[in-house]
Each structure stands twice: as C-alpha cells, then as structure tokens.
Amino acid sequence: IRLQLQGELVASQSVYETGNAYRGMTRGLLHIVSHEGIKGLYKGLPASLLREGSYSSIRIGAYEPIRDAFGGGQSLGVKLLAGMCSGSIGAFLANPTDLVKVRCSCHLARVLDAELSR
Fold first, then answer.
1. Please, which of 29, 91, 102, 105 could form a disulfide with 1 given CB 3.0 to 4.6 Å?
2. Cβ neighbours for 79, distance < 8 A, ≥ 6 positions apart
3. What is the b/e burial string over 37-73, where b = at least 16 CB atoms within 10 angstroms of the residue's CB?
4. The Cα angle at residue 110 between residues 106 and 112, in degrees rounded to 5
5. Predicted confidence (pLDDT) at residue 8 exceeds the cutoff of 80
6. Would the pTM of this model clear 0.70, i.e. be above it?
7. pLDDT tens figures, 19-39
8. If 0-12 CB within 10 Å is exposed, 13-18 middle and 19+ buried, where does residue 34 land?
9. Cβ(58)–Cβ(78) below 8 Å
10. Which value, in Å, is the radius of gyration of the alpha carbons in the chain?
C-alpha cells in the first residue's frame, strides 16, 4: 500500500518529491528495513489479519448453508451460485475491515513522512 500511496505523498509536497522512496517491491522492502527496521514490515499486519480473517471465515462459513438453501445439489451450477453468493456476502461484510486496513496504512505513511522530513 505504501507504494500506491507514494503518489499522494509527492502531491502533498513531502520529502519524497526529490525521488521515489519505493521504486518497486525490493527497493520498498529495503527502504522500510533501513529506516524502520524489520518491525516496519509488520506494521500493517493486525489490520490485514482482521480483514482476511473476517472475509475468509464469512465466505467459507456461509458456503454450505447457502448451497443447502439452493437445494444442496452437487451440480456445478449450484456450487457456482453458492460460491458467488457466499463470496459476495463475505466481501460486503468485510469491506469495513478493508477500509480500516487502508486507513491504518495511510496513517503510517503520513507518520513516516513527517518523521523523515524533520
């Protein structure tokens, strides 16, 4: 997410204006490790786990009841329909946790930008 947010940081007259801090995955990893240490790679982990855990558990947990509601058949069409419905419900309900993940990452990027511009 930091690589994606870099454009916003440049637009806000940040320290990254003189050069891109994240010129790709490898350079981004090296930059984070050199400025924040190994712990910097794990700053967004709790929000990511919350999002993935809620989405996956809803999606997997809702599949069988939805499949059974469509007749519980073993046909490919019923399985596809149940999978699409459970995935849609999971995405709909887990969207707020995805928003939390992105906002946490934005906040971390702004904090890092303020620290580097001192």
1. 105
2. 67
3. eeebeebbeebbebbeebbeebbeebbeebbeeeeee
4. 115
5. no
6. no
7. 566 677 788 888 888 888 888
8. exposed
9. no
10. 20
Hey, what are 44's tokens? 């967004």
Residue with tokens 């350079």: 27
The C-alpha atoms of residue 80 and residue 1 are separated, in whole angstroms, by: 31
Tell me, rounded to whole angstroms, the distance of Cα 60 from its chain centroid. Answer: 19
**For 6-14, which contacts have Cβ atoms below 8 Å and span 24 or more sequence positions?**
9/109, 9/110, 9/113, 12/113, 14/113, 14/117
Locate 55 and state its tokens: 């989405």
The Cα–Cα gap between 15 and 113 comes to 7
Q: Residue 55 carries which side chain, given as an amino acid letter?
A: Y
Secondary structure letter of residue 22 according to DSSP: -
Token pair 């930091």 is found at 2
Q: Which two tokens stand for residue 114?
A: 């303020």
Q: How confident is the model at residue 99 (pLDDT cuts 50, 70, 90)?
A: confident
3-state DSSP: the chain helix, strand, coil percent, rounded to 5? 80, 0, 20
Collapsing DSSP to helix, strand or coil, 23 comes out as coil
